[in-house]
Amino acid sequence: MADTARDPPPAHTDFQELEDGEDLFLEPAVIQESGPASLPAEDISANSNGPKQDSLFDDDPEDLFAEATEEVSLDSPEREVLLSDGPSPAITPITPPTSVITPRIGLAHDDMFTHSSFDEIEEEEGGDSFDMHISVSDPEKVGDGMNAYMAYKVTTKTSMSLFKTDEFSVKRRFSDFLGLHSKLASKYLHIGYIVPPAPEKSIVGMTKVKVGKEDQSSNEFVEKRRSALERYLMRTVKHPILLKDPDVLQFLESSELPRAVSTQALSSAGLLRMVNKAADAVNKMTIKMNESDAWFEEKQQHFENLDVQLRKLHASVESLVCHRKELSVNTAQFAKSAAMLGNSEDHTALSRALSQLAEVEEKIDQLHQDQANADFYLFSELLGDYVRLITAVKGVFDHRMKTWQKWQDSQLLLQKKREAEAKLQFTNKPDKLQQAKDEIKELEGKVQQGERDFEQISKTIRKEVSRFEKERVKDFKMIIIKYLESLVQTQQQLIKYWDAFLPEAKAIS
Amino acid sequence: MRSVSVDLNHDASLLIDIPDALCERDKVKFTVHTKTTLSSFQKPEFSVPRQHEDFIWLHDTLVETEDYAGLIIPPAPPKPDFESPREKMHKLGEGEATMTKDEYTKMKQELEAEYLAVFKKTVQVHEVFLQRLSSHPTLSKDRNFQIFLEYDQDLSVRRKNAKEMFGGFFKNMVKSADEVLISGIKEVDDFFEQEKTFLLDYYSKIKDSTAKAEKMTRAHKNIADDYIHVSATLNSLSADDSTANKNRYLSSSVSLQKVEGRVASDQELKLTELLRYYMRDIQAAKDLLYRRARALADYENSNKALDKARLKSKDIPQAEEHQQHCLQKFDKLSESGKKELTSFKGRRVVAFRKNLIEMAELEIKHAKVSSTLQPTCVRLFVYS
């Protein structure tokens, strides 16, 4: 592929190298106006519907077996083109401008443009530096009984010219987020963009909330969800392409949003999704792709490993959270018991010391509780997010495989048609011959398109993966720093508490 | 390192320690080493091998010796319990396939440390038992104690005396009857009345505290184990990254894990062991009260018998003698009991003080260590 020559050397994906992200795209930029207007929402490409239709039921086959055991968490990066509702023209994928128009005649010149047009979107980002903060807050229960739901306030603060005002907020419910994700997935997944997965549904959690149980666990559930939604939105808008998608903009800005019905777990859409996933799993197993590019093979292996490691780490951290909560409970119980012991002690100084011990332990119990929360919200949830993200990444690789498969299929078909045509040459059936020639022409176009698609998706994936890895390293680093800092704080508090206790212990005579 | 009792081994006339012990599967063989200037012993210095059951035998014979009824008999050391680390070792062996080599090695090391800790604890608690005996003016002179220290043959022959076994069973049966007795008896002495109320209440409280402290310690240990898994996975994750990253992950995870493990074991040693020991000691003090209450009951019964005899004008001198005997026994018990209980309180307060101070100091030390270690890791991360 000529493209590989153009591509920056990402073969040895050392993260250090990718620090200079800007340098990767040092091509002369084609002058285009910046701002949302430049993104063609209208797609002029002829083939937009083609590949889309065929890859209609692309899904994450990987997920099938993982999710087969869960009855209702069906949501994962997937698309139901026919079933999504909403104003955005779901049929028109937003492909990088100009890339599909120029027929590939092997001109290096064209490649330059292909590159540059995507480049300047990146560079636009550089110019209009990413300054956006989304917060999800104020969960409010709306309605009663089983039809009740939680409404969240989504506030966007930004100085980017993309938006009309600096700060604005809207009310959204969980299914709105799922609807947004499904629209984005249907538009971008199949061309190789890593669309961040939405938080998972939870029938149990929601039912508790609906029923109106105002207890610890339902509060925790709401907080967990709120935090997850916030992270989801931030991740989505950090993606330069997704940020400019009209669905995203509408989600953030417009006060009314049509209800995304197809995201319901037990709807016909849900069942359709399940069926599609099953079909996909089977298909995936039968695709044997000739990988000509070692980079992809290496990356896929890398993501497989990462997946395994992250899942393991996630499990360990969840266990840690659980044990720390246990420690907190046990410490509280011990504190009470020590207080009783202190009361029962008849030596006054010792009695006082024991009561002090009880107080210290009570404070420590609260400390453990807070630490457990930090463990969870910082560490564990991040890992969960990344486990799901990796699934999306793997899905994107699968799409590439499917694109290749389609290309190969049309090539084979072309071959057959040509052979048939050759045979027809010797028979005296002029109309059939013409028909065959027409079909061949059409198929040739398809084959070319297929090849273009494949190369496009490969290129997109390379960029996406490098972006993803950069983000990943950044995310982890930030979280680990925060986590370590929380540990330090805990330790310092412990020092304070025990320092206060020590003189009491020494005062026993 | 003696954690729960005040230093006992300071009377040079009789110095006992357990310098060595061997762990064979289920059995622990202690080497009891004695150094003495007393002429009652054959040699000035000698060592004998003893098993846990020998200690129990010694304890039981002391308990059943009438002469010592007015004394607090030091509580018997509990049986060496390697169940927990052994079970964990078993599970570790089963799960070996699912772990990386590094993880497995670390877990194994933790377990070996746990084994060692249990081992040290049991040696210590057996040693303390002997040392309390040796520092007690009356008990140190006990004949069976001497045999225990000196007899260079296997004690198991003596142990398997059926009568003694039966005696032990009988003792337990009687004790529960005494529980009813002790709370029902009318106490004439204020001191004992107070002690009784205090000890009964305190015992139940300290038993509860011991159980809760044990749960706390176990949770700490679980967290330490979790950190091992977390750090192992972080390490394999960072194997993909550049070396700079790797070092960062490594050092931070190691610091997390080591501290939690240390905190867990120190807390156990200072707090939980302290509570455990004194729980048993208070039980021994309660036993003293039971015996005294029994003696009081005997005395009251002998009074009644004397009145009856006087009424019937039969067997008066025997009844009088019996009554005198009971009274003497009761008085002796009360007198030595008072002394014992007073010194017990003093001992308890001192031990609590020492251990609480040490625990607080250790907690501070650990927190200081990790609060300096972790920022270093943070800095490493930030300046990457």
From TrEMBL, chain A:
Coiled-coil residue spans: 433-460
PX domain segment(s): 130-259
UniProt entry keywords in alphabetical sequence: Acetylation, Cell projection, Coiled coil, Endosome, Lipid-binding, Membrane, Phosphoprotein, Protein transport, Transport
Molecular function per GO: phosphatidylinositol binding
Region described as Disordered: 31-60
Compartments, as annotated in UniProt: Cell projection, Lamellipodium; Early endosome membrane
Keyword Cell division: no
Signal peptide: none
Membrane topology listed for this record: Peripheral membrane protein
Record GO cellular component, one term: lamellipodium
Any single biological process term in GO: protein transport
Location (main, coarse): other
Domain of life: Eukaryota
InterPro entries: AH/BAR_dom_sf, PX_dom, PX_dom_sf, Sorting_nexin_N, Vps5_C
Pfam families, A to Z: PX, Sorting_nexin, Vps5
Protein family per UniProt: Belongs to the sorting nexin family.
Function, as annotated: Involved in several stages of intracellular trafficking. Interacts with membranes containing phosphatidylinositol 3-phosphate (PtdIns(3P)) or phosphatidylinositol 3,5-bisphosphate (PtdIns(3,5)P2). Acts in part as component of the retromer membrane-deforming SNX-BAR subcomplex. The SNX-BAR retromer mediates retrograde transport of cargo proteins from endosomes to the trans-Golgi network (TGN) and is involved in endosome-to-plasma membrane transport for cargo protein recycling.
UniProt name for this protein: Sorting nexin-2
Organism annotation: Dicentrarchus labrax
Gene (name only): snx2
Automatic annotation (TrEMBL), chain B:
Start and end residues of each PX domain: 1-155
InterPro entries, alphabetized: AH/BAR_dom_sf, PX_dom, PX_dom_sf, SNX5/SNX6/SNX32, Vps5_C
Gene Ontology MF: a single term: phosphatidylinositol binding
GO cellular component: cytosol; endosome
Keyword Transport: yes
Xref: SUPFAM superfamilies: PX domain (SSF64268)
One biological process term in Gene Ontology: protein transport
Transport is among the record's keywords: yes
Keywords: Protein transport, Transport
Family: Belongs to the sorting nexin family.
Name of the protein in question: Sorting nexin 5
Species: Dicentrarchus labrax (European seabass)
Lineage: Eukaryota, Metazoa, Chordata, Craniata, Vertebrata
